[in-house]
Structures are given as C-alpha cells and as structure tokens.
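U., I forgot to send this yesterday:
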Amino acid sequence: MPNSNNPIITLLTDFGTQDYFVGAMKGVILSINPRARIVDITHEIPPQDIEAAAFNLLSVYKDFPAGTIHLGVVDPGVGSDRLAILIECATQFFVGPDNGLFSWICQREEKYSARQLTNKEFLREESSTTFHGRDVFAPVAAHVSSGRAPEEFGPVVQDIVSLKQLEPDINGDHIEGRIIHIDRYGNCITNLSPRHFGNQLGAGASLTVNRRNVVGFREFFSQAKPETDEGLFMILGSAGFVEIAAKNASAASILNARRGERVALALTSESKAAG
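Result:
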C-alpha cells in the first residue's frame, strides 16, 4: 500500500507544459489528498506515442519506492471503449488507459493484477470525454494514495492490452532484436540485454542494422577506442538495454534507423564460449 503520510504519485504524459492539462491533474490530486507528493517523470512524450511512454516508464519505475502510484496518460483512445485501469505490479500501482502503456512492465515482472475503473464514486463528478487524465485517472490515483483498496475501484481485468513483446526473437543461435527507443541524442536503444550476449559484452559480438555492422563495446561514451564505421559502437545503457551510439553524433542518423528497426545479433565463438 502507499505511504499514507507522504504518498508518491508520478506523472507521465504527452501533454507538454504549454497548456493547463498537467496543472489541472495536479489540482485534482491535491484536492483529494493534500499530502500527496507529485513527481513529474516527463510531459514531453511525443503526442499519442504509446511506445515511447511505455519505454520511459519501464526505465524509471524501479527507481521509486514500494507503494508509488504511477499515473500515465498517453491516450489516443480517450472517450472510446478502451478501458481505464488500475494495475498492481512490483509493489507499485499504475493508473491509466488500457492501451499497452503498462504492458512492458507487466511482461517483465510477469505477476500483476488489473482492475477496470468503473466505480463512479472515485471519478470526478463532471467528466469530460476528452480529458480522462483529470476526470478519471487523477482522482483514482489520489484515492489510491489515500489508502482505498484496489478492489473498490472495479472488477478484475483478465487480459490487458499489450504492445509487441519486449523480448527479442530467438531461434537457435539466431537472435533478432529491434530498436525500441531513440533518445534525444540519437542513441538507438535495443531490446537486447547482456544475457543475450552471454553476459560478456566485450567478447566480439556484432549488431547489424540496415546492412551496417556495429562492432565493439564501450563502457562510457568518451572512452578512447579505435573508431569503426563512422564511430558507431555498442554500450550498455542506464535502462539495462544495449544501445548503439556514436561519439558526439546521432547513431540513428548515421544508420538511417527508426524505432522498430530490426537488429540482428551475431555472436562469435569466443562470445558463445564466454556465455
């Protein structure tokens, strides 16, 4: 359960900060629970970009203490028949639309429970069909932070909407991942983790993207190593995934790569033996 004295509610949206949307959500939360501590993860998710939101939340939720309530609103289906949900997972809570936003966390953790938000007692009395962030999700998050039990909010949801599986495709020795995010520096974050490299990141593996081979690992971006293929290299990023980067340049631009691009992993006999 949340810390009833100083509950934490995080906000992640595609609203930006130019308009009143984020402020309205915070006002609703504080009107219900003035003790809530509100933490902005980001409001700069590209509009309607559910995968970008899912990646950012996946990368940060473990940094928060047990009982944290994560309120995520990237909701191109607002006003439609998509469900509004509350999820318990990894000792935390997640409130938002059932559109895949929380699915990568649930895939990683494997165990979760979800409920549809149907109890109007916990919703804003005057509700808009275009602003569920304020009228549905913010009040529910606030009531959860006040100690209301998840079963009070609505019935169990057996299957939530899921994005494409986070895990790469593995067929024998063939491992094919994909780029799941490109950050503002142009680093291409793949869905490959150290275990796919036999936990030996410096053992001669290579990645192929758009017919370009990327070889060599660095421990940090400015590490002095021989430049190969326009300075491209692999690095283990802070989110726990292997990234393709270029020193002081955009790897995405060099590779002409976009999110979803296939990434083929080739392991040498050396790296296979190490794993």
